[in-house]
């Protein structure tokens, strides 16, 4: 068995042979959605299990672990119970700089992400979607386009964990929203269809503040693809195009573009999306798209290309594009009060996401911005701020960088550390016909639990006006 364990540590996936797995110890770092889902799958597949979380495990996850008799600890990492692992599944939120992770790697223990682990136990066709922005919308839209005709799950950074779905639901297809953090810990994860929406600087604190490290992480989505697989990407994105000029990929490229004519892939012409794959062409009008904005035309192109590849009927694609409900906290229209539109874009946790939000504003805008700055460069927002923003409300613990960047561009710039106060200020400043936009361009962890909490507080404050 020791020989088998050593062999496993050098392998990049979990063998499907049940006899091979007996006695192997799987340690899971993080007792959240991905961790508990992996624990359930791991138990079903015969692993010896231990879950360890440095923080407090939420009651709903703790109850699952208790009910399934899975050993766990919280508020600590016990080295003796972790460093005897054969495999460690590390939740994506845990950086490699954490001392216990350093010790695990120094001990030569195999570290993998949930998507790597779960993909070893399914024969399903995998559609993996990543990108700095748009991946949630594109993943949800892709799932929406496929679900009428196919047995398809939606997982990854969204919904129930991939591992849990592999165990309980066993879909024929999975649409996976995949982050760079999840891609960092793969070796053999291989989607049949990979989608890259865009690459802009984000999460650089996890990549030694080197953009090239973050770019390389995103492109790991194609590293195991073969000529039988497909890579769908934004041909208008200079970062993606530059990388592809200097690196070769094995999969079939299917680019999409708003500005270029694409022979094999998707492009926009006269307000119609034209998708061509192997001389099979479909044309989709954009006039009735449920989602607004140029960036959402790109998201629709990517999702429709996947659907066309998987032979979804044109009528189904068209109807699904028109009735898609959108993503909570992404340019979500909340209410109209005294002819002022209140818009929740809390999911905009980087500058590029806020760029798309400001670009789509068609009226004078009171902009609520701020949070944990991730090394942001706000210069690309200057034209929109000059043109569209009438007042800025800074919502963060430290707003100095925002004042430095925008203080001379608007007549009104105010700071607060309370969402309710930010919304009340916006209510006083806004006039009929204006927009009030929460699009923070920053992470949320200084004042809120996460971006969802921030967005829900915004919506509640608006409803209480």
From TrEMBL:
<feature type="domain" description="Mur ligase central">
    <location>
        <begin position="129"/>
        <end position="307"/>
    </location>
</feature>
<feature type="binding site">
    <location>
        <begin position="131"/>
        <end position="137"/>
    </location>
    <ligand>
        <name>ATP</name>
    </ligand>
</feature>
<dbReference type="Pfam" id="PF21377">
    <property type="entry name" value="MurD_N"/>
</dbReference>
<dbReference type="GO" id="GO:0051301">
    <property type="term" value="P:cell division"/>
</dbReference>
<keyword id="KW-0131">Cell cycle</keyword>
<dbReference type="Pfam" id="PF08245">
    <property type="entry name" value="Mur_ligase_M"/>
</dbReference>
<dbReference type="GO" id="GO:0009252">
    <property type="term" value="P:peptidoglycan biosynthetic process"/>
</dbReference>
<comment type="pathway">
    <text>Cell wall biogenesis; peptidoglycan biosynthesis.</text>
</comment>
<dbReference type="GO" id="GO:0005524">
    <property type="term" value="F:ATP binding"/>
</dbReference>
<dbReference type="GO" id="GO:0008360">
    <property type="term" value="P:regulation of cell shape"/>
</dbReference>
<keyword id="KW-0547">Nucleotide-binding</keyword>
<keyword id="KW-0436">Ligase</keyword>
<feature type="domain" description="Mur ligase C-terminal">
    <location>
        <begin position="329"/>
        <end position="442"/>
    </location>
</feature>
<dbReference type="InterPro" id="IPR004101">
    <property type="entry name" value="Mur_ligase_C"/>
</dbReference>
<keyword id="KW-0067">ATP-binding</keyword>
<dbReference type="InterPro" id="IPR013221">
    <property type="entry name" value="Mur_ligase_cen"/>
</dbReference>
<dbReference type="GO" id="GO:0008764">
    <property type="term" value="F:UDP-N-acetylmuramoylalanine-D-glutamate ligase activity"/>
</dbReference>
<keyword id="KW-0961">Cell wall biogenesis/degradation</keyword>
<protein>
    <recommendedName>
        <fullName>UDP-N-acetylmuramoylalanine--D-glutamate ligase</fullName>
        <ecNumber>6.3.2.9</ecNumber>
    </recommendedName>
</protein>
<dbReference type="Pfam" id="PF02875">
    <property type="entry name" value="Mur_ligase_C"/>
</dbReference>
<dbReference type="GO" id="GO:0005737">
    <property type="term" value="C:cytoplasm"/>
</dbReference>
<dbReference type="InterPro" id="IPR036615">
    <property type="entry name" value="Mur_ligase_C_dom_sf"/>
</dbReference>
<keyword id="KW-0963">Cytoplasm</keyword>
<comment type="similarity">
    <text>Belongs to the MurCDEF family.</text>
</comment>
<dbReference type="InterPro" id="IPR005762">
    <property type="entry name" value="MurD"/>
</dbReference>
<keyword id="KW-0573">Peptidoglycan synthesis</keyword>
<keyword id="KW-0133">Cell shape</keyword>
<dbReference type="GO" id="GO:0071555">
    <property type="term" value="P:cell wall organization"/>
</dbReference>
<keyword id="KW-0132">Cell division</keyword>
<dbReference type="InterPro" id="IPR036565">
    <property type="entry name" value="Mur-like_cat_sf"/>
</dbReference>
<comment type="function">
    <text>Cell wall formation. Catalyzes the addition of glutamate to the nucleotide precursor UDP-N-acetylmuramoyl-L-alanine (UMA).</text>
</comment>
């Amino acid at each position: 068995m020791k020989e088998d364990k050593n062999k496993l540590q050098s392998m990049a996936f979990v063998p499907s042979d049940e006899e091979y797995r007996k006695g192997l110890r799987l340690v899971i770092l993080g007792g959240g959605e991905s961790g508990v889902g992996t624990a359930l799958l791991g138990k079903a597949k015969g692993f010896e299990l231990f879950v360890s979380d440095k923080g407090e495990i939420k009651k709903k996850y703790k109850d699952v672990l208790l009910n399934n008799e899975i050993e766990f600890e919280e508020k600590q990492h016990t080295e003796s119970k972790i460093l005897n692992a054969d495999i460690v599944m590390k939740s994506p939120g845990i950086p490699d700089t954490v001392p216990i992770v350093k010790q695990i790697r120094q001990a030569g223990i195999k570290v993998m992400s949930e998507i790597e682990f779960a993909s070893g136990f399914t024969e399903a066709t995998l559609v993996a979607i990543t990108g700095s922005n748009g991946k949630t919308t594109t993943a949800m839209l892709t799932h929406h386009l496929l679900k009428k005709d196919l047995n398809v799950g939606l997982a990854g950074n969204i919904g129930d964990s991939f591992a849990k779905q592999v165990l309980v639901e066993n879909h024929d297809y999975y649409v996976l929203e995949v982050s760079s953090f999840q891609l960092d810990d793969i070796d053999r994860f291989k989607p049949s269809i990979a989608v890259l929406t865009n690459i802009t600087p984000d999460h650089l604190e996890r990549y030694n503040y080197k953009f090239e490290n973050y770019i390389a992480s995103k492109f790991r989505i194609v590293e195991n693809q073969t000529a039988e697989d497909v890579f769908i990407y934004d041909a208008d994105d200079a970062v993606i195009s530059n990388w592809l000029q200097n690196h070769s990929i094995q999969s079939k490229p299917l680019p999409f573009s708003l500005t270029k004519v694409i022979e094999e892939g998707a492009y926009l012409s006269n307000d119609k999306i034209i998708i061509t794959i192997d001389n099979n062409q479909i044309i989709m009008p954009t006039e009735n798209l449920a989602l607004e904005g140029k960036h959402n035309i790109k998201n629709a192109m990517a999702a429709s290309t996947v659907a066309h590849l998987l032979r979804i009927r044109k009528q189904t694609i068209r109807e699904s594009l028109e009735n898609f409900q959108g993503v909570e906290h992404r340019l979500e229209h909340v209410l109209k009060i005294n002819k002022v539109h209140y818009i929740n874009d809390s999911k905009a946790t980087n500058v590029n996401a806020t760029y798309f939000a400001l670009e789509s504003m068609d009226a004078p805008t009171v902009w609520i911005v701020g949070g944990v700055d991730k090394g942001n460069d706000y210069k690309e927002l200057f034209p929109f701020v000059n043109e569209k923003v009438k007042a800025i409300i800074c919502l963060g613990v430290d707003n100095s960088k925002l004042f430095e960047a925008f203080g001379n561009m608007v007549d009104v710039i105010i700071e607060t550390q309370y969402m309710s106060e930010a919304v009340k200020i916006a209510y006083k400043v806004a006039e009929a016909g204006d927009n009030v936009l929460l699009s923070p361009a920053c992470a949320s962890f200084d004042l809120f639990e996460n971006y969802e909490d921030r967005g829900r507080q915004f919506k509640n404050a608006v409803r209480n006006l």
